[in-house]
Fold this protein.
Amino acid sequence: MESTFYDEVFKGKNEIRDTYKKLFQLFNEYQVDDFELLNEKAKVSFLNQGITFQVYDKTTTEKVFPFDLFPKIITADEWEHVETGALQRSKALNLFLHDLYHKQQIIKDGIVPIDLINSSENYLKQMQGIEPPGGIYNHISGTDVIKHSDGEYYVLEDNIRCPSGVSYVVSNRVAIKRALFGVFNNYPTHSVSNYSENLLDIMQSVKPAGVDIPVCVVITPGVFNSAYYEHSFLAKSMGIELVEGRDLFVENDFVYMKTIYGPVRVDVVYRRIDDAFLDPKAFKPDSLLGVPGIFEAYRKGNVTLVNAPGTGVADDKAIYTYMPQIIKYYLDEEPILNNVHTYHCSRPKELDYVLNNIDKLVIKPVDESGGYGISIGNKLTKAEIEKVKSVIKATPRKYIAQPIMALSTHATYIEEEKSFEPRHIDLRTFTLLGKDKSFVLKGGLTRVALKRGNLVVNSSQGGGSKDTWVLKK
Amino acid sequence: MLARVADNLFWMGRYLERTEHIARFVNVNYFSSLDAPNETSQSRQFVLNSILRMVDDEPEEGEFLDERTVLYDVVLNPKKMFSIKSCFRMARENASGARDLISSELFESINKLHHYISNYPVELFLERGLDEFTSNISKAISTIKGKIVTTMMHNEVYSIIMLGIQLERATDVIRIIDTKHQDAIKTKHELGYRTSYEWTTLLKCLQSFDMMKRFYKKVPTSKDTLNFLILNPECPKSVMSCLNSAKENIDKLSKKKELKSSFFIGKITAEYKYKSIDEIETSFNDYIQKVISELAGICTSIEDELFNH
């Protein structure tokens, strides 16, 4: 089974790929004990710095996101392909969103079926007709890509609601530079520390009309949110305030924050709160996290929300299948990155295929994130297959299925084994769109499934991460 | 600066300071009593009683105190709000709430101590860890304060933290003085009130013993000790010194917008400046209560004016 996967580090049995040859030479100078020590040091350092996340279970344990000392290396040419592909998708999704909330021409032209939009929980009617400042909906996109057994990149999903993980990209780099500076020195690698300055630049570029120097903030659900570290990292590294809902209020459709000297107007809000919780007046009325009236302020163009509300409709896993057509329709370009073939359970013929071939497929709920609710066909027992079948039959629109993708493997230091072993990986890239500008972070979060044979890489499912080195030309 | 975050910073400062005082109080009182020159001061019950009163958990008259229970409650019991563990947890929670404003170095030093406290085994502490644990806390808090001074901009963020630290210090110092003053009364039949061994312990609890001796060049007496710890503006632990520093910091915050709290602190500071220790000693208990309520009044005024919007 393992041999069918693309190995990022080895070609054939024992031959090391060119990109990694130097790394192996340098690693040979280390003993296993050295790695164990470096690994332990990195863990303690993350813990002390509070670079942790909380898992949603009965406890409130803080966990260090497991970090692997073996970096994923991407050559300049390969990266160019990923970067242009990710940017192409983000731009197409932005145009798609504008269309969905305005003329809906793509539906009228019969490219995307209206049912998909009507049945999507993430389509916000309140967004219809609104012109977001700078014309941008998905200012921040996280595109998850994998390398399949054919050695080609495929997009697994687009995340354009509140994609997270960028803080780990930056802190992984800091950690690896400290631990393996001698190795890092030998690879001309692009920096990742410029993410925050670019994000701030993007936020400022979409300021509301009439504002000279915009006051930008990051809004967080609070210290107990699993991604609070990232929220505080972003605010700190941009030098802007990290606010909670209770720190803001709306008066005459303008948003203010409560400072020690009184109210200060806020112009751009990078929100790390889901749509539903953003404004109890416009959406979920019992939300305590949001700001009453902020949506009306947004509608009137007095504040910019980053990302715009309602972007979730386009990163829906059912919409994903139409991405090649969406790209062609809006940009008149061929998609640069491949899409994984997807079966819609809402279509009777495809539903039949899915129900009869579950063992060959991955079943995913269309509107979940974080790796929740995913069933991998060949890992299910007979009873589990039956259960999955009945769940799909009950709400077919909620599920899609894809062939089990052969996520590439990459040598990874496994603590329990005290050795390097191949583990499956994917890569989340981060793309920023602003008014007349864009930025793709040269690097990204390589996520690794630490359990042998596991294909789900999400941190909530026991995944870890690697530093990603994008080499300079 | 956000009002909520200012509130977090103020309380971060207060809880850091409080943790340090409890750790030192427990350490100094426990170990000083071991070879105290008089019988009462050597008694376990006397020391445990003193420790509980300091954290405002006054035991019943004549109640028997179990050493392990008292030490656990005051130091590591997460259910007791006054314990070192709880106080520091609050310090860290407040620091987390202001994480984007404080330096990474400062947060890391706080977080490191949090993990040390969380992971310290209770049994080890009760068997033989009292000195190690409380001393390490004092050292770590000194490091944290060093990070505050050397890695933070000395702007309004700094002023708010320092206000929390100084007002808490003044409050803790006066409470510790109160506790030890009562201890001195309890032991007066052995060594006399004026020359009680408890004054030495009091000064050591506040790391002021050496400097006090250098200043007065004699064995501590009640009057000199109280004068030194309440009114001497050069003793960094004195109530006077804390108020002077608090005044400086509130004045910095007052530059952008005139604050009533600045006037309030100024008024109280001026009153203390012209107070003599003889006036204080005549009705000491009343005086202590007055200081405690005035300090609480200052804190309330700051909270109302800066944090509650």
